[in-house]
Design brief:
Length: 187
């Protein structure tokens, strides 16, 4: 089985007007996505933001659960937060994966918009993780989604998560959990 990595990107993201921005990191995203990552056997979870203050907050949050709280309460949440690596650029995370795996990862994302990037089903994504020779790196955008240029650099796109009815605005942590379950859950 190949290794699976996830990255939560805060730049280059689109805002509601389509402008390229840096989005805000939230402590809930760091914490909750780490728990989902640990549940579904993710090798590492990269929180990527160019903002130094946000990286410091993410590192303090990680440290709280992996050091302070674990010692006081014998908490297993630290086990999940140990997967978190905080970086300022996507390229750094890709290099980290290459260093660990000695192979370039397949870059996989999601988008509700149309792109020339090949689409794969969740079943095909599962096969690439379980049987493929390369690690799979799932990238998740924040705000109103990843920039077009970033998406065009991906190897594959998974289908968007479709809900019931016409309202479709999941939190990124919910989208990550659903995606991981579809790719790694037992049925």
């Amino acid at each position: 089985m190949g290794n699976l990595y996830i990255g939560l990107l805060h730049y280059p993201m689109r805002n509601r007007r389509g402008e390229i921005v840096t989005t805000s990191m939230t402590s809930m995203d760091v914490h909750d996505i780490a728990r989902s990552a640990r549940t579904y056997g993710v090798a590492n979870y990269y929180v990527i933001t160019p903002m130094k203050t946000q990286r410091e907050i993410a590192r303090r949050l990680r440290g709280y659960w992996t050091e302070d709280e674990r010692k006081r309460e014998n908490s297993n949440r630290g086990e999940a937060l140990e997967l978190v690596l905080v970086l300022d650029k996507l390229e750094e995370s890709i290099l980290d994966i290459v260093d660990r795996e000695e192979k370039d990862p397949l870059l996989v994302g999601t988008s509700a918009r149309e792109f020339s990037v090949p689409q794969i089903t969740y079943e095909e994504g599962r096969e690439k993780i379980e049987e493929g020779p390369r690690p799979v790196y799932l990238l998740f955008g924040t705000g109103w989604g990843m920039s077009d240029q970033l998406i065009e650099g991906l190897d594959y796109l998974l289908p968007p998560i479709e809900g019931y009815g016409d309202f479709n605005h999941l939190s990124v942590r919910a989208a990550v959990a659903i995606t991981l379950d579809r790719l790694r859950g037992e049925y």
